[in-house]
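Tutorial, part two.
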Amino acid sequence: MHPDLPSSPPPATGANRPSNLRDGRWFLFFSLGYGLYVALPFLAPVLMHWGLEGPARALYAFYGFFCHQMAQRSFFLFGPRLMYNLADIQAFWQPTTDPLLLRQFVGGPDIGWKVAWSDRMVWMYTSVLLFAWVWWPLRRRVRPLPGWGLALLFLPLALDGFSHLISDITGGIGAGFRYHNAWLAALTGGRLPASFYVGDAVGSFNFWMRLISGLAFGLGVVWWAFPRLIEEAE
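Running the prediction step on this input gives:
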């Protein structure tokens, strides 16, 4: 090679090839793609409010593959309240406890329009995105969560979800031990308002348990999985 000519750069190898995981492009794509996935359930009630029922129904149908969508455990937009108990839904619509019918109810102009995910799904999957945004600027200082830590953070969701399932199967929708929570009222001496023990609306025990267990799920997913994605790329 002539000494005056610049040398060609070395070919890219595994050690010096740019990594999408290391340079942050993957996180941008994740934020955009996953962010769209968790935002679209909130678009369904917006479309209903605008009178665009066809696209809204398509979103309800798509997210119905991933969620029970029962009205008494879902958020409502453009109405007087964010959530309604089963008795409210029955008074507004029809006196049913059939979960297949309750998932079909999407609301109305007077009550608002249902988000295409239940509140549990909102907390679970939206919290993954929120905790990912918190983790990203701190990623070099946060050690990966061990497996036992992930199990502990998943435990509240497992207990809450499984107990709701047993309650709905054995007692029925609106009548099981996780609807009235008489066991909790006895445990606390009934010191809290009746609205805290009964039903699923905002402020109830069931609402707080779904919120807390959903946030714990999102934290566990990000804290355990995302650092390992970076480690695999380095």
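The first strand starts at residue 74 and ends at 77. In part three we will examine how such features are distributed along the chain.
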